[in-house]
Hints:
The protein is α+β, with helices and mostly antiparallel strands and 707 residues long. It is built from 15 helices and 21 strands. The protein is 30% helix and 20% strand.
Amino acid sequence: xxxxxxxxxxxxxxxxxxxxxxxxxxxxxxxxxxxxxxxxxxxxxxxxxxxxxxxxxxxxxxxxxxxxxxxxxxxxxxxxxxxxxxxxxxxxxxxxxxxxxxxxxxxxxxxxxxxxxxxxxxxxxxxxxxxxxxxxxxxxxxxxxxxxxxxxxxxxxxxxxxxxxxxxxxxxxxxxxxxxxxxxxxxxxxxxxxxxxxxxxxxxxxxxxxxxxxxxxxxxxxxxxxxxxxxxxxxxxxxxxxxxxxxxxxxxxxxxxxxxxxxxxxxxxxxxxxxxxxxxxxxxxxxxxxxxxxxxxxxxxxxxxxxxxxxxxxxxxxxxxxxxxxxxxxxxxxxxxxxxxxxxxxxxxxxxxxxxxxxxxxxxxxxxxxxxxxxxxxxxxxxxxxxxxxxxxxxxxxxxxxxxxxxxxxxxxxxxxxxxxxxxxxxxxxxxxxxxxxxxxxxxxxxxxxxxxxxxxxxxxxxxxxxxxxxxxxxxxxxxxxxxxxxxxxxxxxxxxxxxxxxxxxxxxxxxxxxxxxxxxxxxxxxxxxxxxxxxxxxxxxxxxxxxxxxxxxxxxxxxxxxxxxxxxxxxxxxxxxxxxxxxxxxxxxxxxxxxxxxxxxxxxxxxxxxxxxxxxxxxxxxxxxxxxxxxxxxxxxxxxxxxxxxxxxxxxxxxxxxxxxxxxxxxxxxxxxxxxxxxxxxxxxxxxxxxxxxxxxxxxxxxxxx
Length: 707
């Protein structure tokens, strides 16, 4: 047999064949022999017959390269060997693998024992070639491991996929270090290179890899790997020019018995940590390099009882490290984009809902999917003068950053228009003009409603949005008949508003089409299902007790089944409590000099009727100052209204649009101190411009004064 040894390092998982001609590149790698007609083949050992002596292992005749083709064939070989054929001039003979030695016995139990030993890695003596099946197993393992790593979408999933794919099939334990903080995209990291231990994993003592992968069976856990939970520093700094920095700069995985890698272990694992690493080629340090830079390192460990890693295992570790690093890079980018999307959507929606007088509010928002966290749906609740509140819900077409940006502009415009106290139909008209200024294809639907708790009425205007649903106190749910209108952005259309009753205890539900429309049902079927869901929920609490708002919102969202949500959802629920007529006092005052005195007397009588005489002095002083400012410039009657709820609220309205401003009066000024007193004595105060003038209001806390 030709004993020539080839020392060239293989570039794949296939092994060089010791018996092949080194001059033939096709014979340098180990392949499964394929029968080729009329080509020389090596003689295989003869099967032992009864009464015959089996052939001696290893005596098969190799390919007779350079032999005279005309020489007679060898007739002394086994009876199943074939004669050599004439070598063609235009083709070189396919090299034949080294003869496979015959098994000492043919009993089934011996064959099974030999197969089991090969699976455990214990049936191959040192220095002998590894069974051919190990190369195929490596390829299958790398394919399965990279698929498992690629399934992860965030950082933790990818790191866990790497650990679960390698332990116990490839290694007994793994430590994964990642850069802290991880750079995002093309971001250039600043400061020192810090590696933080992200995850460790090891196989328990009772686990076994019998029949799985190409790794041998595991022996009882040694003391070194049993200390894996405490092995490794939580955070290590990679110093410039250190051994660890050189290994990471080299990018390629290395055995830790190499001088540079062995010197890097104390820096990575901490002082004394290298003592817990098994000796020999039983540990691999693999740098994790992303698209532009090294972002971490992985340490693969095997027990001393297990066969050590082989040079081809460095290629396996390189594949695992490369796929993991690229996946981590993408996960960091995805995490940054998801964070931006979440922050954008959060800032586009109300952080908290206001608590206006006479109405309770609850809301929900659900994105269309995890991969589309931003959308064009929004809701809002805007306090208005006179204890009123504007309820808004809208939907911009699309689920992108552009849709969210347009939604933010429309929401800001709606808040500005609401501050002018425009009628609902006028608000939608101005929103339509704003959408046309943003672009020709900026389409949106919107529903704008204004609730007055004093009159128990609600005014609604619609721009192509699904109609609201009103749940009465008795449990009856009805879809309000609201003119549909055209969507915002069409242009050239008029919007119509309707005024409806809003009885105390009723609940108004505003929503976007994602709640009622999907691929499984049309919008009107979904609206009917929503109405039935609200009625069924109300029956659970009885006819005299409306369901809690938060629980009602959750019940409404529960009507969505699996795969029944194709769009993002915005939901706004309003419970109408109203203000009883006995808690409201309202007067008209002529703009004359006697108006402040009359206002003080009327306020004193109302407080006496409500049993709030303790507030008389403060209320009379503040009412006198505000009414005095109003009658000084007003040309029409001034309105004075007192509202008794959880606080005492006073509102003074006039026909002058200019808003009063708080200023510091000089010592020589005769006036200018009225708003200063209001600011010091009132719990809250403010001024709101109306289409017919303005309203100045202030609130006093009943409990603070009475206490």
